[in-house]
Amino acid sequence: MKVRAFLWIFLWCLPLFSSSLHADELTNLLTGKTDSAAAGTDKVISTGSSVQSDKKIRERLQSIFRELEAIKTVSISVNNGVVTLDGEVDSSASETKALQFAKQVEGVVEVQNALVINRSMSKRLQNTWDKLLVMGKQTIAALPLFLLGLLVFLLFWMLGGWISRRQNLFRRISPNAFIANLLGQMTHLVFIMFGLVLALTLLDATAFLGTILGAAGIVGLAVGFAVRDTVENYIASILLSVRNPFEVNDLVNIDNFEGNVASLNSRATVLISPDGNHIRIPNATVFKAIITNFTRNPERRFQFDVGVDTNQNLLVAQTLALETLQIMPGVMPDPKPAVLIEALGDSNVQLRIFGWVDQRQHNFGKVRSEAIRGVKQAFDQASIVMPEPIYNLRISQQTETPTALKPSVASVIDRRDVQDVSVDRTIADKVQEEQQVSDSENLLTANAPKE
């Protein structure tokens, strides 16, 4: 706050100082102008020139020059309308001023410049000191007005800040927290600009505002090109927060990256993969990517393929697989599971098995795994052959149960004949932990419109 206030004080003081400073010598050096002010004009030369008219021209110029401290010592001579200026002046600005006055007098045909600019160090130091004194007096005279302008600016600054912190007001306009905060910042900026215009108006420096805005536009354009990706991500975050394509803890696939949504901030979308890793995707990529939300619809279908021997009764195999899915924990009765013949191979017939899972009550991966195990076990018990493309030759004289399979292990397998297919909260807990430790604001809101 102190740095910003000092900056504005400097900007306001700049017009007061700039009005009294001239870089005449540097301007002439850069532009290459010397006596361009003495160039001729397109005036019509009168035929009635006389000694009396030359005298009037000289007297008129002398009376003007005497009123101006910088050029009052310039000597003037006039002959047939041609004015010759001679003497010393303190700067090129005084020289230009003397030439302009001479050319404006009626009857002057041409102005001869014989002026010499005094480049004495002591003279220049004296002139500089005099200008500093004048500038100091002007600053002291304008100090009350300057303080009033500063007070007006600070009042509007604080008023805008106070209004921008009233988030309840902006939440009525937009329920989205991010948009409400953005509206508050824009309101603060409007108050700052209005206070600046009023302050510059009081100081009679409104032209300086155009200079500031022009410089700000050029700087903004350069910065915009430099941080184009950052601006693109910021705009994408606004659009994503307005129309939420996903919520916190939704399982999504974004640009071939799959994971549970942890947060959406002003720069990136954070996912937690099934492996527990953090994936940060720029919002610009998220906005343009194809998003698959596996959680938005709680009913999700799984599928897997099973190959059976070509000599088997396919209708019996389909019926057995279908009955197995119908009694499988976690498989929904409606929509009904289905078993279709997918393809006829060289050594088998491929069956494609479909089932539906309510992800709010059961874990999708566990149910699918249990369905595969159940179908495989049912086919084994019904002696339905599932051939392999590779033939294995096994030679063994043992007909008993291998000793490696201990009774205790067999009993454990029997007790685990039906797996737990409840919802796995491991990744959900990690998402909750991410919400607690994250220092950035999450832009995802439950009450925002959903796509």
Automatic annotation (TrEMBL):
Lineage per the UniProt record: Bacteria, Pseudomonadati, Pseudomonadota, Gammaproteobacteria, Thiotrichales
Region (Disordered): 429-451
Protein name: Small-conductance mechanosensitive channel
Pfam families: BON, MS_channel_2nd, MS_channel_3rd
Annotated TM spans: 139-159, 179-201, 207-227
Organism superkingdom: Bacteria
Recorded topology in the membrane: Multi-pass membrane protein
PROSITE patterns from the UniProt entry: BON
Compartments, as annotated in UniProt: Cell inner membrane; Cell membrane
Extent of the signal sequence: 1-23
